[in-house]
Amino acid sequence: MDSFAKAVVGLTASVLLLLLVALPLLYVDPPPPGFVESFVLTAVFGLAASLLSLVPGLAAAVAARRGGAWGALAQVLYIPAVVPPTSVGVLLLASFSLPRLFCGGGVEVLCASASFVSEHVINRPLGVLIAMAVMALPTSFSIFDGALREERAEAFFRALGFSGLRLLLLLLLSLRSATASALVFSWIRSFGELGVLLIFASYPVTASIYIYQAWLSYGVGPAVGASLAVIAAVAALAFVARRWLS
Amino acid sequence: MALLVENLVARRGSFVVRVDRLEVNSVVSVVGRNGSGKTTLLDAIAGVIKAEGRVAACGRDVSRLPPERRGLAYVQSVPVDPPTRVDRFLRMVARMHGTEAEVGEVVRRLGIEALLPRRGGLSTGQKQLVNLAAALLARPCAFLMDEPTSHLDWLNKKAFNDVVKALKMPVLYVTHDPFEAIYVADVICVMEGGRILRCVGGRREELEQVYRVAESFWSPLR
Question: Is the pLDDT higher at B24 or at A106?
């Protein structure tokens, strides 16, 4: 690496470490109760959401590589990455608040069904899972899209006679670095998600909501403590993952 | 006839590949520069991209069939990682095509017995041989090979091409290397600007003509 690149990397990393670690340490206080629970909850829901995003992300990448109308449709999976997360949260909230549309309109069966869905999704564990899965899709999609650009595994397996779900499963196993990357980076992403969760699924309390509430209720110090703990855990995992997968 | 292509027109963006007629009954190599349309031709024959015209495999019109039903094995330039342990993967492919009894023979023929218990850590050349074994077990009408040795060192390249020659099966073998084409193929076709300009075959002297044709394309670059 030449000296200019070294200087740029050194400067950027130093500024980030100063802003995200060194200076906040001056404020650090122990996080309020509930930190471990929120961390574990985020880890579990994030893992489930990442797993859920793998097959759709891969299928979209395959469709995108094939082009045509399905390829264009696959680009929809990028939407959660390119619009503000708060917008995604508001839109999900609206979609799962359908009872308002059906109730009182004479369609009582639909009203009951929509109410049931609404009550079991918004600010419920299922809502957290849906929100995280929606936000994980663009990560999976982009990672598999990149992998399929380098390796034409789909053409190889299709020519061997594989199609449908078996084709996707073979691709997941064959592109194992990409699969592991998609899983790890979608999971890491789930720790950073606030906008969608705050509006659509703020309960059970996940890491980002916990930090936000700690800041509102206890001030900067305890929120800094929780934030640094999350940074330490997630950044270490991201570093290991990058070393292992590259 | 193993593979017959007639009046094929395939498009990739504004680039158009047109092939009036191409027969593959032995190892036929398509030689051309980067961007001459070789991969687009293979993709169109394999059914990976849409194309007009007729593709027949083992005498059956497969033009409207998806790649998985064409009976054409497609070996890529970047070999694909086996999704599971090599032996399990080969058995999976064999089960699908009713060729379980041939796994041992194919493995011996390609000399990959030692790779069977392995899952990862295969070299590029080893992966390509495993890909070829899987393709053989699919019992295809013909093989499509897209620069299959472009990522292999000279020894692995020679080993792979020796296997291809020994297969005695129809192969449409794309390469940008005329020397390799002369080594591996019975018929060599030169492709440029999306068209197959000329095919020569039979005697070694005729095959070597293709080198002079290819050289004439490249001479302005020197």
Answer: B24
Average pLDDT over residues A109-137: 89
Residues in chain A closer than 8 A to B69 (CB atoms):
161
* Residue A174 contacts B, CB cutoff 8 Å: yes
The chain-wide mean pLDDT, for chain B, equals: 90
CB pairs under 8 A between A and B: 70
B205 touches chain A (CB under 8 A): no
Quick count: other Cβ atoms within 10 Å of Cβ B135?
Answer: 24
- Residue A231's domain comprises 37-245
Return the domain boundaries, chain B: 3-78+144-218
Is A127 among the domain residues? yes
The mean pLDDT of A185-213, rounded to a whole number, is: 92
Q: Where is pLDDT greater, at A101 or A53? A: A53
- Nearest CB to A176 within list B81, B96, B97: B81
pTM of the model: 0.85
Give the CA distances from residue B34 to residues A160, A170, A188, B183, B192, in Å, rounded to whole numbers and listed in that order.
27, 30, 40, 20, 9
Query: Between chains, do A159 and B81 touch, taking CB under 8 Å as contact?
Result: no
Specify the CATH number for B3-78+144-218; select among 3.40.50.300, 3.20.20.140, 3.30.1330.10, 3.40.47.10.
Answer: 3.40.50.300
* Residues of chain B with C-beta less than 8 angstroms from the C-beta of A167: 68
Alpha carbons B222 and B219: distance in angstroms, whole number: 5
In chain A, the number of structural domains is 1
pLDDT score for A67: 84
The CATH number covering residue A63 comes to: 1.10.3720.10
In our burial notation (b when 16+ CB lie closer than 10 A, e otherwise), range A151-174 reads: bbbbbbbbbbbbeeeebbebbbeb
A152 in contact with B at a CB cutoff of 8 Å? Answer: yes
Decide if pLDDT at A161 tops 50: yes
Lowest mean pLDDT among A11-15, A209-213, B107-111, B199-203: B199-203
Is residue B163 less than 8 Å (CB to CB) from chain A? no
Q: What percent of chain A has pLDDT over 90?
A: 72
